[in-house]
Design a protein that fits this description.
Number of helices: 3
Distance between the termini: 47 Å
Largest sheet: 7 strands, antiparallel
Structural class: mainly beta
Helix content: 10-25%
Oligomer: single chain
Radius of gyration: 22 Å
Strand content: 25-35%
Number of strands: 16
Number of domains: 2
Shape: elongated
Amino acid sequence: MRGFQTTTLNPPAGTISLKDGLSLVKPEGFPGQVRVTTLSQETRSIEGDPNLNLPPGLDRFPNLFQPIGRKRTRSVDSSFGSWALVISLDVDEASRQSITPDNRLRLELPALANEQIADLLPIAFDGEDYLPVGYAAEGNNAVDVVTLPPAVVSTDAQGLPSQRDIGRTIQLFVDKKMGRYTPLIGLRRAELVDGKVEYRDIGPNQFQPGDTVALFVHGFTADTRHMVETFAPFLRDQVLPYKHLLTWD
C-alpha cells in the first residue's frame, strides 16, 4: 500500500498549494509537514488513525453542517462523511505554540460553487478531543486557524506510546454551516412587550458598568423566544430585575 503524500513546510512565510484545491498560507517559521487525505483513507490506512471520526455532534445534523470534502466519485465507502477532507499537520512544539490570533494559519478552500454557506468552522482533533480552532475568513472561501492544541499521545498499560508515530500530528476538519446568513441567529437583545419577545440588535454604548445581564442560550433545533417569555418574568419577580436580556440562538 502506498504511503500518504506529504508536503514539507519550510521556515519562510508563504502560500503552499496542497491537494484537492486547498492552499495553506503560513507565517514565518512553522516548519513541519502537512498532508491532505479523506476520512475514509485515514481510517483504512496503516499510516492513519482507525478511531478517527467526524466531529461529534455536528455529524448528527447533516442538513445544517457538512464537512468540506473531496468531490465524490464511485468508491468502496460512500457513507456520509467518508469523503471529508482531513488536513494533518505534523509540527514540533515551538511551531504549534507560535500559532496565535496575531500569527495565524490560513487555509484557503476550493471553490464552493452554487452552495449557500452561512459560516465555516475549522475543528482540530488532538488525538482525544475535537476543538474549534478558528473562524471563517472574509468571503467564506477560507478559514483562519488561530490556535493549535497539543497532540495527545495515547499510551498502553506500560505508559508507552500505543501508536507508531510520536504523537505530534494534529488533524483538521472544516465544517460548513449550510443556509443563507440570517440575522435571526447569534447574539441579540430581547425585550418583553406585552408578554411577547421583540428582538433588537446589540449596539455600542448600551451597557454600563454594574448593569445586570441574563443570557439565554438555545441549541440548533429551536430558538430562545419561549425561554424568554417563560423565564424572564420569573427572574424579574423572584430573582433579580435584570437590566438586559440577551439571547444566543
